[in-house]
Design goal:
By secondary structure, the protein is mainly α. The chain has 2 domains: 75 residues; 83 residues, no CATH class. The termini are far apart.
């Protein structure tokens, strides 16, 4: 890889974000309520904890690699920042992040099936051109099946 490429800088930024996110997820996994005397083994946070630990390890490996390649030298200019902020990827990220935040805010306030179907419908609509009625059908059926399976079959209440 050539020395002038932006990959080490991107790796550095991504690694810091991964480390922070996985640390937050580990903390949140430990704070979830536990059931019975099994402690963490019976907690719903066990799976996110395992995945967050694996993500933390990957983030640390990426961080080390980016530091060795001097990715911490973040020479950002006004032109580079403007190009970054105007890019399609940045806009997609902002829209997805905003939709996740809106979903989180309304989860528990609005019925799970309704808010989740709206979220899935919006995501499909934003990223892929699909006839609206097919999108609606996919969204409502998928979320309804998930809700029914968890709530009625597995007896796990969803918000």
């Amino acid at each position: 890889m050539n020395e002038g490429s932006g990959v080490p800088r991107g790796d550095f930024i991504a690694s810091v974000l991964l480390i922070v996110f996985s640390g937050w997820t580990i903390y949140m996994s430990f704070t979830m309520r536990r059931f019975g005397e099994l402690g963490l083994a019976a907690a719903p946070g066990l799976s996110p904890l395992v995945f967050a630990i694996l993500l933390l390890i990957c983030g640390l490996i990426l961080f080390r690699r980016s530091v060795v390649r001097r990715g911490y030298r973040l020479a950002m200019s006004r032109e580079k920042a403007a190009v970054f902020l105007r890019s399609l990827e940045t806009r997609h990220f902002a829209v997805v992040l905003a939709s996740i935040i809106i979903y989180y805010v309304f989860l528990g306030v609005v019925h799970f099936v309704l808010i989740s179907a709206v979220y899935v419908f919006f995501t499909i609509w934003y990223f892929k051109e699909v006839v609206w009625w097919k999108n609606l059908l996919i969204s409502v059926l998928t979320v309804s099946i998930i809700w029914y399976a968890f709530d009625q079959i597995f007896l796990i209440p969803l918000p």
